[in-house]
Every structure is written in C-alpha cells, then in structure tokens.
Specification:
This protein is mainly alpha-helical. The chain folds into 2 domains: 81 residues; 240 residues, Rhopdopsin 7-helix transmembrane proteins. The protein is 70% helix and 0% strand. It has 13 helices and no strands. α1 packs parallel to α3 and α5 packs parallel to α13. The longest helix has 32 residues. Bound molecules: zinc ion. Zinc ion (ZN) binds next to α6 and α13.
Length: 365
C-alpha cells in the first residue's frame, strides 16, 4: 500500500467519526423539531442504509461527505434551527453533569449562534442570566459609588481605588462567568479557554473582596494590613495558576475546585481572628461588621457545597434540567454573597467617615 492511499484512509476514518457524531446530533435535533417518534423503524432503516452507503465510499468521498454534513450542520446552527438534545448524545467534552438529563444545547461552532442562545431555554439559560444580570447590577452600583461626591470620604481617591478593586473583582468574575456559560457549547477548545477565565474570575472576586475589608478593618495598623494583602494575592495567584491546568475543569475535580476557592476565601479567618483579638468581640460584631462577613461566608460556602454535591438534581434527576439545578443556585448565592460583602464594606466606610482620619493609640480600626 503506498503512503498516499494510507493517508487517504486515515483521513476517511477521522471524517467518518465526525460524520457519525454529526449524524447523531442532527438526527436527535430533527426528531425533537418534528416531535415525532413515529416512523422510527423507517429512520433506522434509512440510517442503516446511509451508514452502509457511507462505509462503501472511498476515503476521499467519505471526507467529502463529512464536509458536506458539517456545512449542513453549521448552516442549521447559523440559522438558529437547532433543538435541545439529551445528555446521553452529548459529545464527551460537553458532558458535565449527568443528573441533567435533557435540555442541553448541541455543539454549536458559531459564536453568533451561542450568543443568540442566551434568549432560548436550555440547561445554561439560568446560569447565563443570573451572572449577566448580576454583572450589570454591580456595574451600576460601582459607577454610582465612583461618582459619589468626594466629601463623603476621608481620603476620596484612595478609598475609591480600594473599593474599586472590589467592584473590578466582582465585575470580572460575573462577566467571565456569563461569557463562559454562553460559549461553553461552541467547541472543545473555546470551552477550555473560557472555563479557565471563569475559574480565574472567582479568584479575582475573592482577592478584590479582601482589599477594602482589610483596608478599613486595619486602617490604623498598615503593617498587618499590607502583609495580609500580600498573602491573599499570593494565594489568589496560586489558585489562578492551578485553574490553568486542563484536569482542573474535568467533572472528577468538581470537589477539588470547590475546595480551592473555599480555602482561598477561608484564608480570611486569620485576619478575622487578629481583628477580634485586638478589638474585642463587641466592637468586632458592631463596627467591625463581623455579622455581615459571617453571613457572606455562609452564602459562599453553601453555594460551594451545593455545587460540589450537585444538590438538588442528584435527588431529582431530570427534574431540575432547566431551573433550580445546583449551578444556578450557586450562581445566585455568589451574587448574594458579593452584595452582602459590599454592604459590610460600605458600613465600614461610613464608620471611617464619621470617625475621621485619626487613629487611637492601639486600635487597628
Ligand atoms: Zn458558572
């Protein structure tokens, strides 16, 4: 056998696999579109004969056939003529949560189709909108804060930069997230790049949340404030680095992912204890805003637990395909946690404003 014909055969085999995958998705899409289960035998017969015909083709013809099928599929997606498909026919790279049985988008190698799918109902609709609306909410809140008159701050520029870090973290996290959920079904490569951005966004939100909290809580002790900031930045960068590994995004690492980000957030326990010991429990819970911080931690941790354990869909497979599955609840809890944190920080800012720029001899706040 000469090398050219063996190359052709390899090309044909690869093309065969792609065609088969497309056949399955197209068939399921068409079945759902017509809503008919009747004529199943006819379809099977047709499929069998088309597969037999396909196997009888020369490798070059098979490659051509695959290209035609691909073009037909891309055209359908481009026109928005796609239907949701069940979990079992998804290609491996789109199989993430096997408790969501139906309502998945098919692979759609077109950004236009992915963005148009924001307005369709499928397993990602809730995930996209929770963080798209959350992102717009924090964008408005951040702009309002930045345009507040300077006289409501002790050190306007410094304080706006510090609080701006929180808003930047929140906006980056939420926008990477809704973008990831939108283009997740584009292709394996695109999904991989955006999932890394999505995870990095969580680290940005956590780092950004620490900045104004540490700034106001350790206003009169700049040295520990600076050390804690450096430590959280190092830990945050470590989490971002781990997120760049391909294995990190796989379904088996769901628990590890939740653990990494909960661990990053819980690194705040050390400065919290420092604060409580130096200020006393009463001052910590009143002017120190510990109650709000505790509520924030509870919201984030509950979200991470639901995410890792895939509750509630684990108990009701197929019942939470579109609404109220764990990832959606986790998204809502992240937005709520970020808002509670902002509320605590703006209370700290208000206290600083009423107390003025002065510091007592041994206070941290
Ligand atoms: Zn998400």
């Amino acid at each position: 056998m000469d090398s050219r014909s063996s190359q052709e055969q390899r090309k044909g085999a690869g093309a065969g696999r792609v065609t088969q995958e497309l056949h399955t998705v197209l068939r399921r899409t068409e079945e759902d579109a017509t809503g008919s289960d009747g004529g199943e035998e006819d379809e099977k017969e047709e499929e069998r004969s088309s597969d037999e015909g396909f196997m009888g083709m020369t490798p070059l013809l098979q490659a051509h056939h695959a290209m035609e099928k691909m073009e037909e599929f891309v055209h359908k997606v481009w026109e928005g003529r796609w239907r949701v498909i069940p979990h079992d026919v998804l290609p491996d790279w789109l199989k993430d949560n096997d408790f969501l049985l139906h309502g998945h988008r098919p692979p759609m190698p077109s950004f236009r189709a992915c963005f148009k799918s924001i307005f369709r109902i499928h397993t990602e609709t809730g995930n996209i909108w929770t963080h798209l609306l959350g992102c717009l909410f924090f964008l408005c809140l951040g702009l309002m804060y930045m345009f507040r008159p300077n006289m409501s701050f002790v050190a306007p520029v410094q304080e706006k930069v510090v609080i701006g870090m929180f808003f930047l973290g929140a906006i980056l996290c939420l926008s990477f997230s809704w973008l990831f959920h939108t283009v997740y079904c584009h292709s394996e490569g695109v999904s991989r790049v955006f999932s890394k951005l999505d995870y990095s966004g969580i680290a940005f939100l956590i780092m950004g949340s620490f900045v104004p909290w540490l700034y106001y809580s350790f206003y009169c002790s700049p040295q520990p404030c600076f050390i804690y900031l450096i430590v959280v930045c190092i830990l945050g960068l470590a989490a971002i680095t781990v997120s760049q590994c391909d294995f990190f995004a796989t379904p088996q690492y769901r628990g590890v992912r939740a653990g990494v980000f909960v661990g990053l957030g819980l690194s705040g326990v050390v400065p919290t204890l420092h604060f409580v010991i130096s200020e006393g429990l009463i001052r910590a819970t009143t002017i120190g805003q510990m109650g709000w911080l505790l509520l924030m931690a509870m919201l984030y941790i509950t979200g991470a637990c639901l995410y890792a354990a895939r509750i509630p869909e684990r108990f009701f497979p197929g019942k939470c395909d579109i609404w109220f599955h764990s990832h959606q609840l986790f998204h809502i809890l992240v937005v709520a946690g970020a808002f509670v944190h902002f509320h605590g920080v703006s209370n700290l800012q208000e206290f600083r404003y009423t107390a003025g720029a002065g510091c007592a001899e041994d206070g941290t706040l």
